[in-house]
Amino acid sequence: RGHSLDTRVETELDLIGAIYDAVIDAARWDETVDRIRRYLGFHLSMLAVLGLPSGKMIVGAQSNVPYPFSETIYTYADEAMSLWGGVERFSRLPVEEPIVHTEANPSGSWIGSTFYEEWAKPQGLVDQVVLILESNSRLVANIAFGVHQSMSPIRDEQIRSARTLAPHLRRAAIISGLLDGRKEAAESFESVMNALG
Questions:
Q1: Cα torsion at 171, 173, 178, 181 (round to 10°)?
Q2: What average pLDDT does range 113-120 have in this prediction?
Q3: Number of other CB atoms surrounding residue 171 within 10 Å
Q4: Which of 36, 131, 172, 179 lies 20 to 30 A from 190 at CA?
Q5: Three state DSSP letters for 46-95
Q6: CA angle, 121 then 64 then 127, to 5°
Q7: Do residues 167 and 96 touch, judged by C-beta distance below 8 A?
């Protein structure tokens, strides 16, 4: 094959390019998250970038989450966070490192919770891999990949590939937060100018 790139590396480079394209054109996030999910071999995926302290959703993208679960996920945000030990513990988890839910939390910790019984279990989800992309006083961002009961256990290759994409997803989340802040500042400035006029 000469100097041609390994197919895996080529695919990951394409995905990295798609991540930065989505920063420029936010309408591409759902497609990009779907491509990442399919490449990594997970059942579903959700990306959230929230501005703080307002809790404003700056980026929200999903892949393979059926309706009405795609809409109701946000009602379980507080309970889902408590399954990780709350905001404080969640914010201390390593950034950019794939975290397997069942390894980071006591076995069966989510069984019996409303989030599991009403949202995860009906979809056949048995585990998840989470990448914390940012957690500070201004921005919280993460991407989660759901594991279906019909799937084989999480493989090292999936974790390795997620780890490769993580820094790029993190930069994209941070840039999206910065761009949103500048957009809000520009809109505020424009409203002031209009008021003066």
A1: 180
A2: 93
A3: 16
A4: 172
A5: EEEEEECCCCEEEEEEEECCCCCHHHHHHHHHHHHHHCCCHHHHHHHCCE
A6: 40
A7: yes
User: CB of 36 within 8 A of CB of 155?
Assistant: no
Q: Using the structure block, give the residue that is written with the tokens 């990780």.
A: 84
CA dihedral 175, 180, 183, 189 (to 10 degrees): -120
The DSSP secondary-structure symbol of 151 reads S
Read off the pLDDT of each residue in 67-77 and give the average, rounded to a whole number: 92
Q: Which helix (H) or strand (E) holds 126?
A: strand 125-135
Model-level pTM? 0.86
pLDDT given for residue 193 in this prediction = 47
Span 142-188, pLDDT tens digits? 999 999 999 999 999 999 999 999 999 999 999 998 888 555 544 44
Q: How far apart are the first and last CA of the chain?
A: 66
C-beta atoms surrounding 17 within 10 Å: 12
The values of phi and psi at residue 179, to 5°, are -65, -40
Cα 80 to its chain centre, rounded Å, is 14
Confidence class of residue 82 from pLDDT cuts 50, 70 and 90? confident
Least confident piece of the model among 2-6, 20-24, 46-50, 90-94: 2-6
H or E element, residue 124 = none
Buried b (16+ CB within 10 A) or exposed e, 57-66: ebbbbbbbbe
**pLDDT tops 80 at residue 195:** no
